[in-house]
Amino acid sequence: MIRVLLADDQPLIRSGFRALLDNEDDITVVAEAADGGEAVALARQHLPDIALIDVRMPVADGIEATRRIAAEPALAGVHVVILTNYGLDEYVFDALRAGAAGFLVKDIQPADFLHAVRVAARGDALLAPSITRKLIDRYVTQPLATDAPAGLAHLTHREREAVTLVAQGLANDQIAARMVISPLTAKTHINRAMTKLHARDRAQLVVLAYESGLVVPRT
């Protein structure tokens, strides 16, 4: 059963999401929050698998709530998916750097939304296609100058290859086929790279891949 925490300051929005999620046999909503501070407190109390957090809320916004959740070792199993009406670049980068596992716009179709929850629960990175394009475009036009992660030099050749394919948006099965290895081996390479780079999840791994220059977007 996938346990979900909903955080949105609009009760009607929360009710709609809850009705959709609770209708699924493998998903249950364990708590609802009306602001970011309450979301963090409820995450500590209920330890959900997924925290669906609106980016704009009172007390603490979705980015700050994500940052607080990601900073607590006891909440390492909580995957945060940011929800917003907007597709603005600054939110994408702030959310991913804060530790979000995904970023979805609220005009997503119900079936895609449910798929997103299940993908995030598996620990996979999740970005709406429109957000992914913004992410890539940002690095093409405005590459960010940051120091390379300390663990980058310790990646093996195969781990670097796997990270590059993750950054291109490929799933484990696709990465395995491209590298001519088993899906389990592909997952092992990715997990080891995440450990060496201190990436919380695949979403942060993608950001690190671009920021470090390991992956260079095509213009």
Q: What does this 3D model show about the protein?
A:
The protein has helices at residues 11-22, 36-46, 62-71, 89-98, 110-121, 129-141, 157-167, 172-179, 183-197, 202-211; strands spanning 2-7, 27-33, 50-54, 79-84, 102-105, 126-127. Helix 3 runs parallel beside helix 4, helix 7 crosses helix 10 (202-211) and helix 8 (172-179) packs across helix 9. The N and C termini lie far apart (42 Å). Helix 1 links the parallel strand 1 (2-7) and strand 2 (27-33). The protein is built from ten helices and six strands, in the order E-H-E-H-E-H-E-H-E-H-E-H-H-H-H-H. The protein is α/β, with parallel strands linked by helices and 219 residues long. It is globular and about 50 Å long. It has a six-stranded parallel beta sheet with strand order 2-1-3-4-5-6, with helices on both faces. The model has no long low-confidence stretch (mean pLDDT 83).
Quick rundown:
The protein has 219 residues and is α/β, with parallel strands linked by helices.
Secondary-structure topology with pairs:
Blueprint: E1 2-7, H1 11-22, E2 27-33, H2 36-46, E3 50-54, H3 62-71, E4 79-84, H4 89-98, E5 102-105, H5 110-121, E6 126-127, H6 129-141, H7 157-167, H8 172-179, H9 183-197, H10 202-211
Parallel strand pairs: 1-2, 1-3, 3-4, 4-5, 5-6
Biggest sheet details: 6 strands, parallel
Spatial strand arrangement across the major sheet: 2-1-3-4-5-6
Which regions are unreliable across 5 or more consecutive residues at pLDDT < 50?
Answer: none
User: Tally the helices: what do you get?
Assistant: 10
The amount of beta strand, in percent, is: 5-15%
Question: Based on CA inertia axes, which overall geometry fits?
Answer: globular
**Rg from Cα:** 17 Å
Look at the structure and give the mean pLDDT. 83
Helix content: 40-55%
Question: How far apart are the termini?
Answer: 42 Å
